[in-house]
Write the structure tokens for this entry.
Amino acid sequence: MKHNQFWELKQSAESPDTLELYIYSTVESDHWWGESETSAAHFRDMLAQHKDAKEIKVYINSLGGSVMEGIAIYNQLKRHSAHKSVVIDGFACSIASVIAMAGDTVIMPKNTVMMIHNAWTIAMGNAKELRKAADDLEVINQASRQAYLEKAGDKLSEETLTELLDGETYLTAEQCIGYGLADKYSADDEDDVQDSGGAQAKMKEQIAAQIADEAFAERKAKAIAAINKYFG
């Protein structure tokens, strides 16, 4: 499957020292039938061609995908010597939000959204195997939490982050800035930027009333029901 039109790393036409990365698709690992062009391995190969880049601009509009691939892409970006600017063009959901945390500067127009949640999987087996699957997910969750906490600094406690992840929470640009998950609005919104401390109180009120995404929960329920029907 080809994703060049959705996932592209290219040299900027304006500056030879600047790379532009567009993450406009699902983050996927390689398949048995061929290589994925949104995998960490493919991204590594592309990035290796531009070791001397001084600036990497990452544009994100993605619902997420593979946790394994996304964490590896996050770490590849983090250790690259270039300054990383991340722009959320639409949605940065699930593992795409983790990739966004690699940005030295994360920019969100006011009409964009970030969604964070715990990792999930489909498991089957006996009681012991199901308990192990849950324990494994806790380890994976702990690993991905570190990306959010490192970016947010003292603006976001681990306790609050855990509540947000448990709630499968959608965050506005204002909320992300308040929590330290983003740094500023886009240039078009700069005149309206509020002090992040002042936005914090309003943000917490909004989060308290927020409901977990029903569509995502329904998708999980349907998948589990299908497995139970087949193996029941």
